[in-house]
What we know:
Chain A is mostly helical. Chain A has helices spanning about 10-20, 30-40, 45-55, 75-100, 100-125, 130-145, 150-170, 180-195, 195-210; strands spanning about 30, 60, 65-70. Chain A has 2 domains: about 10-70, Arc Repressor Mutant, subunit A, CATH 1.10.10.10; about 75-225, Up-down Bundle (Four Helix Bundle (Hemerythrin (Met), subunit A)), CATH 1.20.120. Chain A is built from 9 helices and 3 strands; from the N terminus they run αβααββαααααα.
Amino acid sequence: MLKSKLSTPQIYDDLHMQLVTAQIPQGQKMRSERLREDYDCSANTIREVLFRLASEGLVIFEDQRGFRARPTDPERLHYLTKFRIMLEQEGATASIQHGALEWEAQLAASHHKLSHIESKLSETSLSGNTLKLWSLAELEFHDTLLSACDSPFLRSSYRRTYDQFRQQKIMQPEYGYHPENIVEHQAIVTAALKRDAHACRVAIYEHMKRNLRDGGASGTLHPDALGAASTG
Amino acid sequence: MLKSKLSTPQIYDDLHMQLVTAQIPQGQKMRSERLREDYDCSANTIREVLFRLASEGLVIFEDQRGFRARPTDPERLHYLTKFRIMLEQEGATASIQHGALEWEAQLAASHHKLSHIESKLSETSLSGNTLKLWSLAELEFHDTLLSACDSPFLRSSYRRTYDQFRQQKIMQPEYGYHPENIVEHQAIVTAALKRDAHACRVAIYEHMKRNLRDGGASGTLHPDALGAASTG
DNA sequence: TTCCCAGAAAATTTCAAAATTTTTGAAAAT
DNA sequence: ATTTTCAAAAATTTTGAAATTTTCTGGGAA
C-alpha cells in the first residue's frame, strides 16, 4: 500500500473510512507502532487521530492498553437505532414544517439517486464498490431529509450516530441487501412531500425497526423511537 | 496555585470545570506553553486534553493557530437551547412512560435539593460557591428527569449539550438569578409525577424559551423544540 | 498437567528539543 | 501619514527517544 505522505486530516479520513466500512474489523487492536509505519508519521500523530475517533465512538480507548476498533455489541446497535429513529423523526417533522420548495427538490433528487442504485442492487450481487456507493447515497438521502430542520446540533448528532450504526451493522451479511428498503424509502419520501408528519414518523420507524432488540414487535402501536409520541 | 502533579484525566477535569464556569473566559487563547507550566507536564499532554475538549465543543482548534476557549455566540446559544429542549422533551416523555416508582422518588429528591438551594438564592446574593452548588443541583435535576428514558445516547448527548449551554450562558449576569426558575422547575416536576407528558413538554419549553433567539415569541402556540409536535 | 512467578519482550505514555509556522514590531518606501 | 517589507520573537507541531506499564514466554512447584 503506497501512500505519499498523508497529512493529519487525511489520516483521520482514511482511518474513519476504514472503521465505518469495517475494513478494520470490530474489536481489532490498533497499535500505534503499526499505524505509524503504515502512514509514515510519528506515534503522536496517530495517537491524536485515534483519540478523536474515540470521542466519536468508533474506537475505544483503555488507559495504558491502547486503542481498539469498537467491538460488535447487539445492545449498542439497539440503542443506536433507538436514538437514530428519534433524531430522524424529530428532524423530519421539523423539515416538513420549515422546508421550502428547494428542500423538496433536493429530497426528490437524493431519493432518485438512491432508488436508482437500489434497483440495480436487487438485480446484481453487490461488489464492495457498489456497496460503498449505496451507503453514501443512503446517508445523503437521510441527511437531506433533515436538512431543513434548522437545528445544526441535531444534524451533527445524527451524522455521528449514523456512522456508529454503520460500523455496527456493515458486517452483517444482509446489510444493503433488503429489497424492502426500496419501498420503505419511497414511503418516507412520499409522506415528507405530502407534508404528512405523522405518516413520515411511522415510515421512519418501519424502516429502522428491524434493528431494534425485539425487531420492533410492539411496532404498530408505538411508532415513536422512545415509545412516547403516541401518548399525546 | 500549588498542584501536586495532576494526572492526565485530572487535568482534563480541571480544565473542563474552568471552561464551563468561564473561569477561562470565552474566546481566550489557551497556550500550550502556559498550561504546561501551570500543570507541570509536557506540551503533548496538554495538546491531548485540549483536543478532547475541542471534540466536545468547549474549545475551538485552528490548524497552526492553537486552541481558544469557545467565544460567546448568541446564535450558538439559540441552537443549543433548541436542541436541549428537544432532547429534554423527548427524554422526559419517555421517562414518564417507562419510569417506575424509583424514578419518581429520585426525581422528587433531586427537585427537593434544587428548590432548597433556589429558595436561598432569592434571599442572599450568590457567591461563586453557591452558584456552583446551584449549577450542580440543576444538572442533577434535569438528568434525573431523563434517567428513565432508556436511551443512553440521548442522555450523553444531553449532557454534552448542557455543558456547552452553560459555558455560553454563565457569564450573563442573570444566570442563576431568575426567581421564575423556582416555579418553572416545580411545573416540570409536577407534570412529570402526574404522568402528563404534554404538560411536561410545555413546562420544559416555558423553562428554556428565554434563551431562544426571539425569547420564545411564538411560544404558546408551538411548545415543541423544533416547532413540530403540535402538527400531529 | 496445571498453576504461578520471574524475566524478557513489546507496547504505551511522557518528555524535551528541533523544525515549522505565525505573529510582532520596526525600518523603509510610497 | 499610511502602507509594505523584512527580520526577530513567540507559539505550534513534529520528532525520536526515555521511562513506564502491560503482555508474553518459559521454567519450576504443586
